[in-house]
Amino acid sequence: VPQVQPRVEELSELYRELSQHPGLSAACLGPDLTTQYGGKYCSLYTEWSQRDLARAENIKFCRQYLIFHDGASIVYSGPAGTCSEIKDELLSRESPSGTLKAVLRKVPGKEKEKEKQFLEVWDQNRKVKSIDLTALDKHGSVYDDDQFGCLAWSHSETHLLYVAEKKHPKAESFFEIKAPELGTSDEDTGHPKKEDAPIKGEKFVYHEDWGETLSTRSVPVLCVLDIEGNSISVLEGIPEHLSPGQAFWSPEDTGVVFVGWWHEPFRLGLRHCTNRRSALFYVDLTGGRCELLSEDTRAVWSPRLSPDGCRIVYLENNVLGPHQQCSRLCMYDWYTKHTSTVLEAVPRQAWGAFPGIYCGALPGMCWAADSRRILLDTAQRSQQDVFVVDTATGTTTSLTADAPQGSWSVLTIDRDLLVARFSTPSYPPVLKVAVLPAAGHEAQTQWICLQDAPPVPGITWGIRTLQPPPEQEHPQYRGLDFDAILMRPSEGPTAQKPPLVVMPHGGPHSVFTAGWMLYPAALCRVGFAVLLVNYRGSLGFGQDNVASLPGNVGTQDVRDVQLCVERVLQEETLDASRVALVGGSHGGFLACHLIGQFPDTYHACVVRNPVVNIASMVATTDIPDWCLTETGLPYKPDALPDPAQWTEMLHKSPMRYVDQVRAPVLLMLGEDDRRVPPKQGLEYYRALKARGLPTRLLWYPGNNHALAGIEAEADGFMNMALWLLKHLQ
């Protein structure tokens, strides 16, 4: 049997090479300009990100392009200049006319000063404003995340709207004594000013936060900068029980529209949780009156205002239940105040029909110029496609049905110029542009590649569909099927009969789409076949598929992965004596289940922040509702611990099967993980050690659930590859 034994230097060189492929993160189209011959052209600004291993950081860079078009097609397009790195920009946004640009920038503090935040306004060739937000001290840090954060120009281009942490009053010990600082005392009394006086006894008060990746977010406030007056005001009138975010200016700039999340009785983790009670609100700038625009018993996000200022589309889910599900597309008419559902959740995916909406957000710019159609991308089984939706009729058309199969994402659309990203498991992200055809002719969309990338040699891939046997059917949701993406090395010593690495995704309600993924591509280049399993419960297959899994974790999902592995080993030339598992989060949960339930199949295992004991996780995670929902139990914030529920959680956990485990296990844990706290992995590590099983634990400080720090990601790959090579000899 050919052995896969590249040296450490070869592995690190391979990772260095593949990790240099940049990701495409944002795009912005400039205003149309006319040449002296009557032709139209515009600039396209793009932002990319790339791993810099030498600096151990993710760098951002920008590149500009020119697009010449006649309104119906693109005549010519190409790059304008080379790349340049973007330093310290947290947010940036061009004004509606395209003549101004706002930038939120972080600036390192001098000596012992803390880092500062500046809000800048740029004209076409100079900086016209630079405002030190930290010195003004009207609020805490500005939010630059995509959960709450925004940077929105008023239609008049005179004001900027953003979200920041509420200013917390200074606090001190009961026994602190210090001289009053100069300039802080009241001129009449000599005592410190009331608003500056620290509050005694508040020094150690606990402030709730919004969980994983949002641990510095507690009480968001909406803030407005008057550009001319250099003044900042914090908007009033927002109810105390709401946390506002994703805000924009209403038509005519009379007020602000925002999403408000309920935070009573306490905050639950919000990242990747599109099931938290929230609604759409409008706050009037003059009277401070706050008005509810959507139902207040649902979860809403991603509101987008049409170019004519008449309609707002947004996504909607039910509250609680699976964290990700098939979403509804809703629309609010600003003038009639009528709300309609444009697209309902889809029970079952069917080719040729719209698969349903399974996306974390709508594109920031998603409306066509007619203010009637919107663009979105969504998972369609194991690929991702772009669709146009007619909001008046609810009809949908794929813009990528005749394009290459893979993963398509909309970056922006402006004046019907459409910018998208495309990749496959063997083809890193490329930049595509098109003109959106007139209504009724969208299927004729012609995509042009503006920035190509060389395909990675030595990788072939395909998607296969599997049907569970009758005894494994869900009694309520019969006839469901699922997919897997198989990647194979097409060159090298193991190409004929490679060892197999099985990777189930996390979530569990997420999906592997056929796009570029660094770890699977790198493992394939090392000489492994990689099987990415979209078991029942994954997104992109219809809401029934999502609903089939809660209550059946540890059985249905485990059997789906095992069925897939057995089928692939039967039908493909793979080395069945060298099969391993790699998984993170719920994928780690499945990997630990599989090595315990099917110990004869697997010979090595690597898990990243795995769930191993749902019963012990429920009291420590930022998402306790997940533990109950996926176990098949109802979640109530005021429920007390129940022995029967704990028994059920433990019964569905991998820890139950630890006595049967024989495979060597490598664990990778993020010290700051709030979602699946590292105590989970430690619990499994100790159980394995107590049974004398080969195990190794890697502990990554400063890393959370994703283990996405550049150093942790690179070290994780090297250790994973070496572990698999060692134990699959």
From TrEMBL:
GO terms for cellular component: cytoplasm. One of its GO terms (molecular function) is omega peptidase activity. It catalyses: Cleavage of an N-acetyl or N-formyl amino acid from the N-terminus of a polypeptide. Residues 12-448 form the Acylamino-acid-releasing enzyme N-terminal domain. Its EC number is 3.4.19.1. It is an enzyme of class 3 (hydrolase). PANTHER family: ACYLAMINO-ACID-RELEASING ENZYME, SERINE PEPTIDASE S9 FAMILY MEMBER. Homotetramer. Belongs to the peptidase S9C family. This is Acylamino-acid-releasing enzyme. It comes from Oriolus oriolus. The lineage of its organism: Eukaryota, Metazoa, Chordata, Craniata, Vertebrata.
